[in-house]
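Progress against Task 2.4 (sequence-to-structure conversion) is shown through the following example record, which the project officer requested during the mid-term review.
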Amino acid sequence: MNDDREARRPHGELVAEVLEVLWAAGRPLTAQQVKEALGRPPARTTVATILVRLYENGTLSRSRPGRALAYAPVADAAGLAAGRMRRELEKEPDRDLVLKRFVSSLSAEDEEALRQLLGEAEDGA
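Structure tokens generated for the chain above:
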């Protein structure tokens, strides 16, 4: 017996695939265009729901070039990751401790990269 739940992929995986399609397109796409680019069967309504939720949380912008709404990412993957990190940090009352724990968990290479980036930011300020 085939269980529909086994055929479903995790929600986060589909969201990531939708974002990949939008980044690769380099232009706003409608829900139908995203569905077609995915090349497999999530329903257009499922794709539309994901696009609306990503728009509502600020991950996508939305325009109406014709009859249908079109969506585009507001940032690349690195920008979205940086935004998530910033939002998580803003939630914490003891930001210094969170930053200390974060830095202490970095590899030597990542720590050096962070030092270099902080130096560059300081020089540019």
